[in-house]
From TrEMBL:
<dbReference type="InterPro" id="IPR032694">
    <property type="entry name" value="CopC/D"/>
</dbReference>
<dbReference type="GO" id="GO:0006825">
    <property type="term" value="P:copper ion transport"/>
</dbReference>
<feature type="transmembrane region" description="Helical">
    <location>
        <begin position="260"/>
        <end position="282"/>
    </location>
</feature>
<keyword id="KW-0472">Membrane</keyword>
<feature type="transmembrane region" description="Helical">
    <location>
        <begin position="147"/>
        <end position="167"/>
    </location>
</feature>
<feature type="transmembrane region" description="Helical">
    <location>
        <begin position="62"/>
        <end position="83"/>
    </location>
</feature>
<keyword id="KW-0812">Transmembrane</keyword>
<protein>
    <recommendedName>
        <fullName>Copper resistance protein D domain-containing protein</fullName>
    </recommendedName>
</protein>
<feature type="transmembrane region" description="Helical">
    <location>
        <begin position="113"/>
        <end position="135"/>
    </location>
</feature>
<feature type="transmembrane region" description="Helical">
    <location>
        <begin position="303"/>
        <end position="322"/>
    </location>
</feature>
<feature type="transmembrane region" description="Helical">
    <location>
        <begin position="222"/>
        <end position="240"/>
    </location>
</feature>
<dbReference type="GO" id="GO:0005886">
    <property type="term" value="C:plasma membrane"/>
</dbReference>
<keyword id="KW-1133">Transmembrane helix</keyword>
<feature type="transmembrane region" description="Helical">
    <location>
        <begin position="17"/>
        <end position="41"/>
    </location>
</feature>
<feature type="transmembrane region" description="Helical">
    <location>
        <begin position="179"/>
        <end position="201"/>
    </location>
</feature>
<feature type="domain" description="Copper resistance protein D">
    <location>
        <begin position="219"/>
        <end position="320"/>
    </location>
</feature>
<dbReference type="Pfam" id="PF05425">
    <property type="entry name" value="CopD"/>
</dbReference>
Amino acid sequence: MNASSASPYVLPALPRILITLCYDAGLLAAIGLAATYLFVLRPGDGRDRADSLGLRTRMRSVLSVVGGVLIIASYADLAVTIARSEDHPNYLGAFSPAVMSRFVTAPADDGDWVSAGLLALIQYGLLVVAGAALLASRFRRVRGRGVAAGLVLALFGTTVSALPTTADALTGDDLVQTLLIQVHIVTAGVWVGGVFGLGLLAVRDRRSGGVAPIWSTIWSRFSHVAAVCVGGVLISGLWLTWKHVGSPGQFLSTPYGRFLATKITLVLIMIVAGGYNQQVLLPRIARLGARGGAEVAIRHLGRVVRIEAVIGGLVIMVVPFLSGSARKEAAGAPASPIDGRLLALGLLLIVLIAFGLWSAGRFARSFARVSGPVEENQA
């Protein structure tokens, strides 16, 4: 491939950037907050039960707002999808119900098993219903069922968006990429959304003048969820980076590479902050918990999580600018299709990352057990 075939970076239009930002934030928050509600904020016993039920009620209030955002953002993102399908995008005109109706009812192209419009209708329809379920979770008769339904529908919606319209796209390489994109979206959503939601609840607890004992259990539970998500983000992120960036130099020589390098740097900062929580603060909380002096460490951990949430927001702000590919901008060769060698390397990376995360968690738990009690002023 020669330099004449390079594809220059095109900055997305401002409406597309803003709408994509709102859509991504709404979708990731819906997935992350719902998963956190269902798997982390489980009711405890005694005093912990009362505290956890209060946190679950507040989380449903946040989820209802997120549900409303997801409904509006899904409608707007459908308009962006329609505008991008045109040679001369008209973002304002794409909001017209008549234009949307023509797009979703258009017949499939020759050779396609389904039209792009029908897939978009199913995708955004599922997300709108997911948003409605989250919105309704504030009502007593819905509650957890609404949250669970919202999470399942949101996951189905993201899956539909990845389906190809032609059977020719169902190659092994395309299927692997589609799967890893979904892994990237879901694990990033659970991680970033969970960090945001718990950070928000922790701020309110701090302002109320105390730290509920249940928080030590919540942070411990979430650390396990976050570790799995970090593994998913790393594995899928490495694959997607290789698909779009052909050499280290392209991180600096191409606009796409620079935006991606910014995103990777922010994600690594989040991982370091999470590692600090797991290796330092959680063992400290475990050692102090029996003496009733863990409040300072819990507050400290909450501050670190809020910093993670801010950085996660910056990551989401970078995503709309990741349009195109550094390989194409640098007139480089496309990534090789998956073969046995690449598959073996990928499996090895999965094993190494999983082992590393498991070892880190085991070390933190062992350190908490053998260190013994410490004085409260050390927290």
